[in-house]
Amino acid sequence: MTTTAIETSAAALAPTSASAPAADRIQRAFEAEELRGLRVGTWVRFAVILAVALWLPFLTPTQALWYYYLLMVGFVALAVGHYEIRRRVLEAAWAPYLFVSLDNALLAFTLIVPNPHARGVLPAGAQLHFGNEHYFFIFIGAAVFSYAPRVVVWAGVSAALAYGIGVWWLTQQPGSYAELANMTYTLSPDRLVAHLQDYNRIDLSTAIQTGLLYITVACVLAAGVWRVRELVRRNAVAERARTNLARYFSPNIVEGLANADAPLGAGRRQDVAVLFADVVGFTKLAEGLAPDRVLALLREVHRLLAREVFAHGGTLDKYLGDGVLATFGTPVAGPRDAANALGCARAILSAVAEWNEAAARRGQTPIRIGVGVHYGPVVLGDVGDEQQLEYTVIGDTVNVASRIERLTRDLGCDLIASDDLVAGLAPADRALARDLVKTPPQTLRGRAEPIALWTYRA
pLDDT digit string (tens) for 38-47? Predict the structure, then answer.
């Protein structure tokens, strides 16, 4: 998603202090997701441990089972403890680091310290010949569900530390000795094979390489987590900016800004439907109202008009005192622009009638709306400078629509549609004009030629 235009406008519209609460909301969302991840991870751990517990009797002598079962209880206790602490104290940021460390420490103990109840005693170094060190990757991968890059990195570091401490402990056992791999290069092939099969030997090179691999994988995963967090943050900023813009601009204009890297463009000519709607006699009506009530009435009227314009796919070009200028077919023209404009005009009158019924029950004065719609060519595009742009339409079509709306007072009707608009209706939309009455051509102020009109009284 392209967010340049949206983010720039949002920065101008929204108070600068709003960014902190937004960041807090994003952080709380991640914390909530972490808690859900912990809950899922806890149940997954239960299932895995249960499966291992059922399979273990087929692999391990009976006298050694209880030792492993006790370790399994430890892993379950760590998962439950971590979840409960995060559930009860959501801001306990230290908890993931502690429990990741404890998980890795217990896993290192399980894999490296021999089972004291097992039959026979193997050399200490034999614990490194079973390939069990790969299990650390499970806990490193599980740290991704913390949605915290630092926790993921710490999972790799703590795994390397736990494994390294375990290897060091093995080097301290009787009969064990440690060496680097390059110390074996001088041996003959036969002696080298025998040497590598010596379970008393601790290969420090392999241990160091394993620890570095834990850290490397953790860093790669942490980079992925950071990238996801950044995408979520940017999407949240863009969505907040889109919401803020929608309070000032029509939804289709907001959509155009959201998907554009530059303003909507220089002027171009196309056919659109233009609608003017105005409260008839608002000045006289406002004389008998307190200023706060006048403002409240204006807001109610604007909300009603904007709702119907948006519902019919229109663009709210601007508020004009107690009225609005709306266009249909901007920024992209469509086959139903004339129908959408006429449908919106009729919907406005129906909504005003409902509003008046409710106002009468509240003892308020009803209002009357005059609506004029016209269809024809306009020039549309950005006007203004680099700091402040307004996307609008200009031309004779706009002037005619305005004067048609003013004519509703003289003709005693609520809606006037031009013959051009009615002619622009597709056959499937002709029903919208079924009860419009064609009037004799009228001469509008500023125009020499009369214009054919259709009227409607609600």
Answer: 888 788 888 8
Distances (CA, A) of 44 to 37, 83, 138, 159: 10, 13, 12, 21
How far CA 444 is from CA of 214, 311, 410, in Å, comes to 81, 30, 12
Q: Which two tokens stand for residue 112?
A: 């490296």
CA nearest to 143, candidates 212, 80, 219, 213: 219
Question: Which distant-in-sequence residues (6+ apart) come within 8 Å of 251 by Cβ?
Answer: 310
Q: Tell me where in the chain the CATH 3.30.70.1230 domain(s) lie.
A: 263-456
Mean pLDDT score across all residues of the chain: 82
- Give the whole-angstrom CA distance, residue 458 versus residue 456: 6
Helix or strand (DSSP H, E) at 106: helix 95-112
For residue range 262-276, list pLDDT tens digits in order: 555 556 889 999 999
pLDDT at 212: 95
At residue 344, does pLDDT exceed 90? yes
CB 323 within 8 A of CB 277: yes
| Pick among 3.30.470.20, 3.10.150.10, 3.30.70.1230, 3.40.30.10: CATH of 263-456 | 3.30.70.1230
CA distance 103 to 99: 6
Range scoring the smallest mean pLDDT among 95-99, 171-175, 339-343: 171-175
Nearest to 373 by CA among 458, 453, 430: 453
Looking at the predicted structure, is the pLDDT value of residue 197 above 80? no
Beta strands in 168-308 (DSSP E): 177-179, 201-203, 268-279
